[in-house]
Design goal:
mainly alpha, 0% strand
């Protein structure tokens, strides 16, 4: 966690990279996702929305992927408990349940990524369907799934709760974001080879660009909310949920002119603006 007047950096450069955290997070996740790959090897690929993927996934594959998502969570709490004991682990956990943020950052966490996706649909000419809002119980269930099982809870206690504060101890905010973004991208790699995973239907390089840019945006929010993990949980959930909130009415271009392509461009543009306006050193003014 950060504060308004951070202490002088105690480590610098390579020494501030929490290699043990990344090693354990990757080991847990890649082992489970490797087993998921073996379950799905040779099966036909499934494409579509999150709902379609969940409905079509074999139970063994789904369980292994969902458990693998918790590699960062596991690594963060194991290492925190080992070094800071029960009190340190409790503080990390509490950070995910601390809701005190200014209205501005609530608005950013809840609305930024859905707004960018909505704009992407409009700019691509795909049109916008609001059908999801006619099924509130399904939408609520999907939101809870995204929050607790679909990436947010399993990842953010690790990425933003454990790794980012340590990287900020030795790097500028932008530098820490780019390093964490690179690890975040590589961590997802096995999913691109598992039929039926969301990443299996995505081109890799746009995913890498948007994920790295997302790391910058997450850090920008992180330093403004004093490092509470809850903000990252909200950002992650609303980012993953956006395409389920607003669906295209028709095809809207290909490649970089598709909704996904335009959304990637917009996310990268926001990250660049954040770095230029708030400054790469701290991603905040003052």
């Amino acid at each position: 966690m950060t504060d308004d007047n951070p202490a002088p950096k105690t480590t610098t450069g390579i020494k501030s990279i929490p290699w043990d955290y990344f090693a354990l997070a990757f080991a847990v996740t890649w082992t489970l996702w490797g087993l998921a790959y073996l379950v799905m090897r040779g099966r036909p690929a499934v494409e579509g929305t999150t709902e379609n993927l969940l409905a079509a996934a074999p139970p063994a594959m789904l369980v292994l992927i969902l458990l693998g998502v918790f590699g960062p969570f596991t690594s963060a709490f194991v290492l925190t408990w080992r070094r800071q004991g029960k009190a340190g682990a409790a503080a990390l956990w509490k950070s995910g349940w601390t809701f005190k943020m200014s209205p501005v950052w609530w608005l950013v966490a809840l609305c930024l990524f859905p707004a960018l996706w909505l704009l992407s649909l409009i700019l691509s000419g795909a049109g916008v369907s609001f059908e999801s809002f006619t099924r509130p119980l399904v939408l609520l269930g999907l939101t809870l799934f995204m929050y607790f099982l679909g990436g947010s809870f399993g990842e953010e206690f690790g990425w933003r709760g454990y790794a980012l504060p340590r990287l900020l101890d030795g790097w500028s905010a932008l530098g820490a974001s780019l390093i964490l973004g690179a690890f975040w991208v590589v961590w997802h790699l096995p999913l691109f080879f598992i039929p039926g995973s969301p990443q299996a239907q995505m081109p890799f390089w746009p995913f890498a660009a948007s994920t790295t840019a997302l790391a910058v945006i997450y850090t920008w929010v992180h330093v403004h909310v004093k490092g509470i993990v809850f903000a990252a949980l909200l950002l992650h959930t609303t980012g993953n949920l956006s395409a389920n909130l607003f669906a295209p009415l028709r095809d809207g271009g290909e490649g970089w002119t598709s909704p996904d392509g335009i959304n990637t461009i917009l996310i990268v543009a926001v990250a660049v603006v954040v770095a230029l306006v708030w400054g790469p050193k701290r991603l905040r003014r003052g």
